[in-house]
Amino acid sequence: NAGVTQTPKFRVLKTGQSMTLLCAQDMNHEYMYWYRQDPGMGLRLIHYSVGEGTTAKGEVPDGYNVSRLKKQNFLLGLESAAPSQTSVYFCASSYPRLDSTDTQYFGPGTRLTVL
Amino acid sequence: AQSVTQLGSHVSVSEGALVLLRCNYSSSVPPYLFWYVQYPNQGLQLLLKYTTGATLVKGINGFEAEFKKSETSFHLTKPSAHMSDAAEYFCAFSGGYNKLIFGAGTRLAVHP
Fold this sequence. Notes:
A: mainly beta, B: six-stranded mixed sheet, 0% helix
């Protein structure tokens, strides 16, 4: 099992460029998440998905879009990158426990710099 | 609204000393609480979690945490620090759909 993988690992963009981050999981998890990590702020939820074809906004969704066309993949898009989106992005997945007690499994992260 | 506060962004201990990382939460519903660890340039890994039942929770690598409702705390401890424990530690609260609300993190340094 590869667990949760993220592509690419590093990326440098210029302001206004677009890109897509890919997250893939092979654990048959229903739930998937995108977080961003900034110094001194922990991880903040951008968007999440509770199943194929569904997405929902998290705490900091502005400037990002997501899609979940296949159960195993969760894509995060930046349509017009801004320097404020310089961050480390983490994808995670979990089983759909209704009591919200299940563990999230994290990918290794993507370090994005926007110049 | 739920929130998590980690006291101390940096903690430094000597090898063999007690590790104590503090976490307090605010919630109007029964909390489900987690501690995750992040080693340099890696993703997050679950250390332990509290859902229901026993308030003293044991995790991996010798860590444990005690849920104290009266103090709204979930502090992480380890009796004897090892050099390999140097990492960043995050306390988190689980909301609906397993969404996690993270504290700001505490970076633990272990020196010889």
